[in-house]
Write a structure and sequence with these properties.
3 domains, 718 residues, 13 strands, four-stranded antiparallel β-sheet, single chain, Rossmann fold, alpha/beta
Length: 718
Amino acid sequence: MSTSSSDIDSSKEGGSFVIDTGSGSITSSDKRRQASCKKFQEEIPFMDEDCEECGDVDCHIPRRRPHEVVTRIPNQVKIKTLTHLAKRPAIDIEFQDLSYSVRNPGRREGRRTILKAVSGKFRAGELTAILGPSGAGKSTLMNILAGYVYAGVSGTVKTNGHPRQLKFFNKLSSYIMQEDLIQPFLTVQEAMEVAANLKLGDELKFPEKQLAIDEVLNTLGLLSCRNTRTECLSGGQRKRLSIALELVNNPPVIFLDEPTTGLDVVAIKQCISLLKLLARQGRTIICTIHQPTASNFQLFDQVYVLAKGQCVYQGASQQVVPFMSSVGLHCPKHYNPADYVLEMIQGEYAENVRILSAEIQNGKLSKKLDPSVAAGEGVSDPDSLKSIAKICRRESVAVMPAVFNHALMDSMDINRDYEFPTSCFQQFGILVQRLFLQQRRNTVSLGIQLFHHLFSAVLIGGIFVQTGDDARRPFANVKFCLSILVFFLYTHIMTPVLLFPTAVKLLKREYFNRWYGLKAYYLAITVASVPSMFCFSLIFCLVSYLLSSQPLEPSRFIWFFAASVAVGLVSEGHGMIVGSVFSVMNGSIVAPASFSPLLALAVYGMGHGGAIEQSMSFLMGLSYLRYGLVAITDSLYGHGRPLLSCLDSDFDYCHYKDPELLLRDLGMADTTTLGQIVALLGFALVYRFVAYLALRYRLTSEFSNQVLNYIAKILRHK
């Protein structure tokens, strides 16, 4: 049972809390102890803070008592609870003797060790920061714990004391990348609805999903901008939205890579405070962070410091200075502890890494918050400290929704295949709907495409005006066919080359966090691109066809249009392969280099088609552009076209008055338009399949590393 907001009232009874447990009220001595808990009463941002300064080691582990109702003093801010989210188990992550090494690039033998047998434990209900200099292994450690890196890893990773089952763990964790990659041309509300529909499926009904979205937006302070487009959000709002999108299915473990990068001082404070609130609700939140301020550093429940692949500190942030002092490193007053510990483990102080790592046993020890710290706040009786801790924890847990529970982990069938909450067909429908909405709202792109097709059609049609029925200039009309081919080639190959790398980054975030499967995504982008291609291609073909005076036969125009679209489909698949593998800069070079030989093979043998060598015929058959050129040309000159007219000629003889003679000299006599279009569709399927494999290659880093290592071994042996 979860505690709703209606269960929490504010009343005043002597300025103290009254906690009704169903068996009676708290005694007056408990009230005095509660009043002495300074941090509990003075915590302003979030009222679900555990009383860390009470000295109770278990204070950070929430244990909710049934039927508890909390009555609060009016001048405190209520916690924003998430009572309508799906239930998830709380997860503690423990790792022992974790090592990771990679092959040294450019060397024949040897491997470089990045992590050196580090250990540690990250608990549910705590906000943990991983700190360290550049190259210390922060991101590597987090990627290993998240399950994105597993080749070359030794050691053990456990969840709730049991060996981690990666297939199951991946369904219960979310990874928020450093870049705030959010789908454009959607409002905050629409983005959240898409995330809820994909990540929750039928687990919650539609009204419950809306309640969950409202609660998440309210908790993260995004209600006021729920109808704002994502591209219009500020940096802090984008960061909060990226967290909200992953929070909608209530993951018990959240990994964040540099969540404060690019934010101002105020936004950083808000971001860390928000993460602490989410951790207090029972989640395990782990983030890498770069040089936090002293005030922000104190907000972290646990700090894990890495240097040269070794753990040099693990424990409470308040214990960093005492720990450093215990080994003779005294942090000056009014000095940021985070800056000091980073300075003491690099440069001329690099020798301290060995000393600190030995003192903390490379992460096997953890420096808990000392009860004397809380005693310094005015509470000296250890018994009183423990009692206050229980009251603080009971207050914190009572207002928390019962969505995190260690027992849920045992009750869930870990052998069940938790692939995705939604079926492939449902994912496809949601993604296609989102893509169509984005296309419709991207008016700038639609306007550019319309102008591009119209202007190019008028330009090409104007250049080859009245060539379609002139027997005196048949090769001019062949050049018109070649111009159509090149237009569809460049237009549809360069669009994915320029846009797909960004789409792949967005895909990584959503795919890694188990929003949908790659098959559903790939099918959706394939289908979503067809209507716009069809409409713009129809405009281009119709204008250019009429201006160039081609035969006014509907069937012939349909063949011409079908052949042109088929070339566009294959070219788009070609561009998707390049865009999936290469960056925009490299792809802009690779794409023209890859289709230039195909274009040369397409025009080979023009004028002496009957004399083309057999070997060249085989090579020409490997070029989809050859099939496209033949299909476009045959659509204009084949299908039993009557004799052409010799326009503006004093003689009634033109050598290529018979269209069959022209097709014979072009090497296209024994072909049909339908056969060429079928071949183009076959090429389209092959190219799309290769592009799909290229996407899997990009998304599966371990597969990439294995392939590259295998190639490197072959080269070394040679």
